[in-house]
Amino acid sequence: MPIHELAALGAATCWALTGLISAGPAGHLGAPTFNRVRQIFVTGLLTLYVLVTGAWRELDATTITPLLLSGFIGIFIGDTLLFSTLNRVGPRRSGILFALNAPIAALLGWLVLGEALSVSAVAGIAVTAMGVFLAIIFGKRKAQMHEWETIKGPLWIGVLLGLGAATGQAIGSIIARPVMETGLDPFVASLLRVGIAAACLSVMAQLPIASVKPKGPLTPKVLAMTALTGFTALAIGMTLLLFALSGGKVGIVSTLSATSPAIILPMLWLRTGERPAAGAWAGAALVILGMGLIFIR
User: Fold this and answer.
1) 183: which DSSP letter?
2) Cβ neighbours around 281 below 10 Å, total
3) pTM here?
4) Under 8 Å CB-to-CB from 156, ≥6 apart: which residues?
5) Torsion of CA 152, 158, 159, 164, to 10 degrees
6) How many whole angstroms separate alpha carbon 101 and alpha carbon 114?
7) Neighbour count for residue 112 (Cβ, 10 Å)
8) Among 116, 117, 250, 257, which residue has the fewest nearby CB atoms (within 10 Å)?
9) Is 231:41 a contact under the CB 8 Å cutoff?
10) Is the CB of residue 19 less than 8 Å from the CB of residue 139?
11) In angstroms, rounded to a whole number, what is the distance separating the alpha carbons of residues 174 and 106?
């Protein structure tokens, strides 16, 4: 059973759900504050787990440094850019930009780690990536007027932010991959990665820069929604991704974890009541076909 590939799909499902939940609180608080609150919450949860289980004993000097670097680039930089993109172009468009982390990670896995991919795996990655793009590009019908389709500010800025988020995620995965191969508890790895990001955002929040200050008050409802996104995306989704990296190839794992844009389509339909276009469903079908090719051994 392809347990590591299924874990990557589980991570994609968590992130698709998070994309819907995050739109409101991220816009209310602003990307830096929203990200900081959720990461502090998740750091607390993971710390309790690591202390109770004694999993912290698995750490040593050879694993701590690369995981901290992975969290700094992949979560502190990557997530902050991702939610800035979400605020500007909405969950659908930010999904297509973030999905670019898959081909970026596959290329880096080949160049940096020397990972060889079979012909069927390469074809599966290509077909899956094509399906992801179609699911987003044709995910809107002309009649759709939901606020999530509104572009705030210049589109090119949103595109650059999304590309930065995808690159950060890919680099973070590449750095974490060799460490996870050692069999380190994924929850311990998540704690280090999320913890360093929370610490960096907390320091940044003290700077006299208006853009890093809260845009709105942290009400109980916003706090609850923010904590839920952290639990879903970081405590569960990120841990599933790290587990997937412990036994799966970076290119394949990153491609499967980037299928959120296809998974989010039925979620968007239920949430907004607006049915995605036929082209979006065709893209989702290609994603399923691509995953089938990836699973071929």
Assistant:
1) T
2) 18
3) 0.74
4) none
5) -170
6) 18
7) 15
8) 116
9) yes
10) no
11) 9
Could you identify the residue written with the tokens 């590939």? 5
What's the token pair of residue 277?
A: 């276009």
What is the residue whose two structure tokens read 């079908």? Answer: 285
Alpha helices per DSSP H over the chain: 3-29, 31-53, 61-71, 78-98, 101-112, 119-137, 155-180, 186-205, 220-230, 239-247, 250-257, 260-272, 278-295
Question: Encoding tokens for residue 289?
Answer: 């076909």
Tell me the HSE value of 79 on the side-chain side, using a 13 A CA sphere: 32
Please give the Cα distance from 245 to 215 (Å, whole number).
Answer: 36
Task: Please give the angle made by the CA atoms of 72, 184 and 43, to the nearest 5 degrees.
Answer: 45
CA-CA distance, 125 to 122, in Å (whole number)? 5
Q: How far is the C-alpha of 31 from the C-alpha of 211, rounded, in Å?
A: 9
The domain spans of the chain are: 3-295
- pLDDT by residue for the chain (297 residues), tens only, comes to 588 889 988 998 998 888 788 878 888 888 788 889 988 998 998 899 889 988 888 888 888 999 999 999 998 998 889 878 887 877 777 777 777 777 777 777 777 777 777 788 788 878 877 877 776 677 666 655 556 566 677 878 888 898 899 899 889 988 888 888 888 888 888 899 989 999 998 998 888 888 788 888 989 999 999 999 988 987 788 888 878 878 887 777 877 887 887 788 788 778 777 777 777 788 778 877 877 777 665
Q: Helix (H, G, I), strand (E, B), or coil: what is residue 273?
A: coil
DSSP string, 133-181: HHHHHTS--TT---GGG---S-HHHHHHHHHHHHHHHHHHHHHHHHHHT
Joined together, the tokens standing for residue 89 give 């172009």
For residues 72 and 68, what is the distance between their CA atoms, to the nearest angstrom?
6
